[in-house]
């Protein structure tokens, strides 16, 4: 009798060993959203979870309101994937992290081209860096310059002004110094407060931060938002590919590319919510000057090792395909 039950135990163990790949453990993705589980970012990820079932993944989500903590938990192996800003994701993959570079994606039309490019299987190997993979980049809108006084309407007037920079992204302080302004260290949780309390004169932020972070308080009656995209801000999904089914990252990037019209719809709705009096139009005559300065910044930051030269070449190609007569298209230094 004893022998029989031992035999059955052995068979059970064998059957379990054969079946266990089918009962794969759920993957946990840590999602940073300033509004936690109530935010648009977190809600969008719920649809992603449903789509990922088709690619053999059973994903669970965990909301974080602190981006740094979400990133540290991911590094420590407490989650299999993390959704964070491209600025923070640059440490995991510099190639994709260089999308959020200054002035390199001038419009949402260009951004559409970039997201399609990321989904191209030819670039799949660039998405993997060490034990990390970028499973997609989600556009969340342009980063615009917010000023607490609309008389700061040209770059020369920013000289000596205080600008909030994230101390963990060294390229920001570098840029601010190059325009003769004064960098003030901040983080995603503190930069809005510093602007609203007049501790800094200038911030760069996407419009989705306008309401939840009450940036209209910092704008007050004299401030303005310059309607000129300095950078395009993305959320990036970083995963540890070994925790997911084979080919998951590519399917994920292709799926995210199909969702772009929806993301742009959300961005446009948010931008429409801004009180029209707060927008400040940047005259066409000034744009060339800004573009030249941003280009010099990009070249400087690429040489300094902040941006990946391969991505910078691809982004330039996208710009010159859309606007071949731009001055930069005849130049070869980027």
Structure description:
The protein is an alpha/beta fold and 334 residues long. The protein has a single domain (24-330), classed as D-Maltodextrin-Binding Protein, domain 2 (3-Layer(aba) Sandwich), CATH 3.40.190.170. It has 13 helices and ten strands. The chain has helices at 2-19, 40-53, 67-75, 86-89, 94-97, 108-118, 170-178, 191-196, 215-219, 248-258, 260-272, 284-303, 309-322, and strands at 27-32, 59-64, 81-85, 128-129, 132-147, 162-166, 182-186, 202-206, 224-239, 279-280. Strands 1, 2, 3, 4, 5, 8, 9 and 10 form an eight-stranded mixed sheet that branches. Strands 6-7 form a two-stranded parallel sheet. The model has no long low-confidence stretch (mean pLDDT 90).
Distinctive features:
334 residues, alpha/beta, D-Maltodextrin-Binding Protein, domain 2, two-stranded parallel ribbon, 41% helix, globular
